[in-house]
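debug: dumping io for the single-chain case to check the tokenizer round-trip. Nothing else runs in this session.
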Amino acid sequence: MPLMEWISLRMAVCSLIRLILMHNETAFAIQRRLQCAELTTVILPIRLAL
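debug: decoded output
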């Protein structure tokens, strides 16, 4: 695999990992706010077929 293709692939994977982590942090941040408001919360992982 040429160097430039490898670098592009690596950057795409890093972006995907950041997106997944940001999504996970968002769900937990919402859950914390709702729990502070004394509302019971449950986070359910679901897969969406787009």
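debug: round-trip ok. Residues 28 and 37 are 14 Å apart (CA to CA).
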